[in-house]
Specification:
By secondary structure, the chain is α/β, with parallel strands linked by helices. The protein has one domain: 3-Layer(aba) Sandwich (Rossmann fold). 39% of the residues lie in helices and 20% in strands. It has helices spanning 2-14, 27-33, 52-69, 85-97, 101-106, 111-126, 137-144, 172-189, 202-205, 220-225; strands at 41-46, 75-80, 129-132, 151-157, 193-198, 228-233, 246-255, 261-268, 273-276. It has a 9-stranded mixed beta sheet, sandwiched between helices. A hairpin with a 5-residue loop joins strand 7 and strand 8 (261-268). Helix 4 crosses helix 6. It starts with a helix and ends with a strand. The model has no long low-confidence stretch (mean pLDDT 89).
Length: 279
């Protein structure tokens, strides 16, 4: 262990100022939590309709592009029980192209927008991203533990509806705890994990509606297992699907190796993406 610590400290001295983990799309978040690295289990928790799936897809795209730039033969692996893969890919095409997703869905894109969307689709197909509609936790483990092309980051959308095992006969609280424990173990053994989590609606009835760790839905194990917890927040009357440049906050409420705080930015509903104030 002493040799390992010495080597780590020497490496950090040789690369001053370099964040050791995979960067987020938003530099302020990267600085606060030191990027994404094993053994981090990163929880992205929000109430329904805030846009957590879109934040996940932004992170996945950014990570895949970073892997190509760094010439790293690794893969981003997305486990989605929430959306069909094609629907998720359409959202990612909108984020890459800047073409409003509603225009693509309704066939109302201009010729220029249509061309941009096609180019974004070709780019997305070249990015090192794989997708899985999971059957159970064993299939998820096999998907992440790929010895041919290692996993750089795995993403789960979302924890509360991810299947555990067909033979599970316990209660919902226990199932969510088992899943959270499994993802913590996967993050320790294989790669950092970005785990999406629903949040209870209790916060909406509080005098201060800003999210806290205790709002995570289903099990206290999520709060304990996570290395980093990020909770996006927008005012209740702001729909994520329409409008442009609405205020949005990313609350970093837990960071084992970094600092906590709030990152302020804008939600762009037409492309379902988030930018910080200096972008």
């Amino acid at each position: 262990m002493e040799t390992g610590i010495t080597q780590y400290l020497e490496l950090r001295r040789m690369t001053p100022g370099v964040i050791p983990g995979i960067p987020y799309p938003w530099p302020k978040v990267t600085d606060m939590v030191e990027g994404m690295a094993k053994p981090q289990m990163i929880v992205l928790g929000a109430r329904p309709g805030i846009g957590k799936t879109s934040l996940m897809s932004q992170i996945a795209i950014h990570t895949a592009q970073w892997l190509l730039e760094e010439n790293r033969p690794e893969m981003v692996r997305i486990i989605t029980s929430e959306m069909e893969v094609e629907a998720l890919q359409m959202r990612m095409i909108s984020q890459l192209s800047g073409v409003p997703i509603q225009k693509m869905r309704r066939g109302l894109s201009t010729d220029w927008q249509h061309q941009k969307a096609l180019e974004a689709w070709q780019l997305l197909k070249r990015l090192p991203i794989e997708y899985l509609r999971p059957r159970d936790i064993d299939q998820i483990k096999k998907f992440i533990d790929n010895t041919t092309i290692p996993t750089a980051l795995y993403c789960v959308d979302y924890l509360q509806i991810t299947p555990y095992r067909n033979t599970w006969h316990g209660d919902e609280f226990g199932r969510i705890s088992k899943l959270s424990n499994a993802f913590r173990e996967f993050s320790l053994r294989y790669a950092p994990g970005l785990i999406l989590s629903q949040m209870s609606r209790y916060s909406e009835r509080r005098e201060d509606p800003h999210p806290t760790m205790s709002d995570l839905k289903g099990s206290g194990d999520i709060e304990q297992d996570a290395s980093v917890i990020i909770m996006p927040y927008r005012a209740k009357d702001e729909s994520p699907d329409v409008g442009e440049g609405k205020d949005m906050e990313l609350h970093v409420v837990k960071s084992r190796d970094g600092v906590t705080g709030v990152v302020y930015g804008k939600w762009h509903g037409y492309t379902m993406s988030f930018t910080t104030q200096n972008e």
